[in-house]
Write a structure and sequence with these properties.
It is built from 5 helices and 2 strands; from the N terminus they run ααααββα. A two-stranded antiparallel ribbon has the order 1-2. The protein is 57% helix and 14% strand. A hairpin with a 2-residue loop joins strand 1 and strand 2. The protein is globular. The model has no long low-confidence stretch (mean pLDDT 91). With 88 residues, the protein is an alpha+beta fold. It has one domain: Arc Repressor Mutant, subunit A, CATH 1.10.10.10. Helix 2 packs across helix 5.
Length: 88
């Protein structure tokens, strides 16, 4: 199931939660690892899947990758509503 693949790990959920609720647009892997309480390698592995699904996009600046949510993805709006509602 598609949704199972997207939300199939705690780290993916934490990454998405952080990105949807932080009020920021751009993220580095190290920042996400700190916010999610995960290792950089685990965040790297899970963010790779989210990029493959198209929910997250990235831009390279030198050796760094800057990650952001893809508002054009069909699950962006429902996931945003879900994560934002969980904060309130």
């Amino acid at each position: 199931m598609y949704l199972e693949d997207i939300l199939g790990s705690k780290t993916k959920v934490r990454i998405l939660y952080t990105m949807f609720t932080s009020g920021r647009d751009d993220f580095f892997e190290k920042e996400l690892a700190i916010e999610c309480g995960s290792s950089i390698s685990e965040v790297n592995r899970q963010i790779h899947f989210l990029v493959e699904f198209g929910l997250i996009i990235f831009q390279k600046k030198g050796r760094l990758k800057i990650y952001r949510l893809n508002p054009a993805h069909f699950l962006y709006k429902p996931l945003k509503e879900l994560f934002v509602a969980s904060v309130q």
